[in-house]
Design brief:
The chain is mainly alpha-helical and about 160 residues long. The chain has one domain: Up-down Bundle (Four Helix Bundle (Hemerythrin (Met), subunit A)). The chain has 5 helices and 2 strands; from the N terminus they run αααββαα. It has a two-stranded antiparallel ribbon with strand order 1-2. A hairpin with a 5-residue loop joins strand 1 and strand 2. It is globular. It starts with a helix and ends with a helix.
């Protein structure tokens, strides 16, 4: 049941982020919002690598302002699909498994998989709110609705 719940939450995460990305890309000065979106994606990849026991590679968690941003729509979709595919391999019991990982400073931590997944999803919500505030400060008045309950209502 929780695996299906997390799959739905990643659907929400993708939908709300793509809706916000449309506004960001049409914004005349989108650099900071694009940096936050790129950071969200990088963090999703870092966490996915951690839970899969893969090396971090050359992932940059905070891209420099002014750096070239990837095709965020496709990268967002690919990242989401990678998480959905990983979730499809899990059982309910797997969610209780402890994941041992290192942060960027080399410190070792351990957390339950379900708590890591919750972190990934909440991290996205946090940064989408920041992006919304940045866009409002730039004079954008009409932002997409990114509330979870709105997403769920539109599923049916």
């Amino acid at each position: 049941m929780m695996v299906k719940y997390f799959e739905q939450m990643f659907g929400y995460d993708l939908s709300s982020t793509l809706n916000l990305l449309q506004i960001v890309e049409s914004n005349p000065a989108p650099e900071k919002p694009l940096q936050l979106l790129s950071h969200m994606l990088a963090a999703q990849q870092v966490w996915l690598n951690r839970v899969q026991g893969l090396p971090m590679g050359s992932i940059v968690l905070w891209p420099a302002l002014g750096s070239k941003h990837p095709d965020l729509k496709n990268v967002l979709s690919a990242s989401n699909l990678a998480w959905i595919k990983h979730l499809a391999t899990l059982t309910e019991t797997d969610l209780e498994n402890t994941i041992i990982y290192q942060n960027a400073l080399g410190e070792t931590f351990n957390n339950r998989l379900m708590d890591i997944i919750t972190q990934v999803l909440n991290h996205g919500t946090h940064h989408r709110a920041q992006i919304g505030q940045l866009l409002k400060a730039q004079g954008i008045e009409k932002l997409p609705i990114t509330d979870y309950i709105f997403y769920v209502r539109n599923l049916n």
